[in-house]
Amino acid sequence: MNVFRLLGDISHLLAIIILLLKIWKTRSCAGISGRSQVLFAVVYTARYLDLFTSYISAYNSIMKLVFLAASYGTIYLMFIKFKASYDHNHDTFRIEFLILPCVLLSLLINHEFSPLEILWTFSIYLESVAILPQLFMVSKTGEAESITSHYLFALGSYRALYILNWIYRYYAESHYDVIAIVAGIVQTVLYCDFFYLYITKGIYGQ
Amino acid sequence: VSRRKEKDEL
Questions:
Q1: Rounded to 5°, angle at Cα A11 from A7 and A13
Q2: pLDDT band for position A126 (50/70/90)?
Q3: Which of A39, A69, A99, A197 is deepest in the core (most CB within 10 A)?
Q4: Phi-psi bin for B7: left (phi > 0), alpha (psi -120 to 50), beta?
Q5: What is the pLDDT of residues A161-191, one digit of tens each?
Q6: Are A169 and A16 in contact (CB under 8 A)?
Q7: A74, A76, A81: which is closest to A32 by C-alpha?
Q8: Beta carbons of A203 and A144 less than 8 angstroms apart
Q9: Which of A1, A43, A56 to mutate to test binding with chain B, by most B CBs within 10 Å of its CB?
C-alpha cells in the first residue's frame, strides 16, 4: 500500500458516498446515469469474485464489500425506490456497445486464460469506459448539479491517483500490470474534458 | 496462481 493508492481508494469511496447521499437527501436521481451505475455494479461483481477465494487483507476485503454494497444500493435507489425521478430520456447511451467489445478484448488480451483472470480483465476494460453514459448524459443535458460534478471529480481523481500508484510501484517494487495501466490511462483521459470544465467553470448551472 | 496473490489492488 502507498499514499497514492490510499488516496485513490479514499477518493473512490468518497465518490460513491457523495452519490448515495445526493440520491438519498434529494430523494431524486435526476442527472445521474443509471446505465453507468449498472456498468459499475458489473465491474465490481466481475472483479471482486476473488473475495471468496483469496484473502489479501482486512482492508482489501472490507473495501470490496463496501464498493459492492454501495453500487447495488445505488441501483436499488435509482431503479426501485426513486424510480420516478430517473431521467430515461437523457440516459440513452447504448451500453451493449461497451460491454461486448470489453468481453471480446478480455478474451483476446489477458494475462492468463482462466475464468477469474478473464473476469478481472473484463472488469478492468469495462471500468475504463463505464463512465461514458454518465458523461454523455451530462453533455446532453448541458449541465450537472454541483453535487454530481463533485461526484464525477472524485471518481475521475481515483483512477488518476492509481496511475501515480502504478508509477510508484514500478520504481519502488518493480511491479506493474500493463492491462490495468493502459485501461487506467484511458479511463482518466475520458475525464479530461470534464476536469477542464469542473476546474475552470464548475459546470453546474451554466 | 502468483497473479492471484499479486492482485492486491481494488
A1: 115
A2: very high
A3: A39
A4: beta
A5: 999 999 999 999 999 999 999 999 999 999 9
A6: no
A7: A74
A8: yes
A9: A56
Contact B8 A64 (CB under 8 A): no
A56: CB partners within 8 A, 6+ apart: B7, B8
Using alpha carbons, list the distances in angstroms from residue A204 to A9, A92, A201: 25, 21, 8
- Torsion of Cα atoms, A159 then A169 then A121 then A109, to 10°: 120
Q: Kindly state the cell numbers that stand for A19.
A: 452519490
Which grid cell is A74? Answer: 445505488
C-alpha cell at A144: 450537472
The answer to whether residue B6 neighbours chain A at the CB level (below 8 Å) is yes
Query: A129 Cβ partners below 8 Å, 6+ apart?
Result: A39, A98, A102, A186, A187, A190
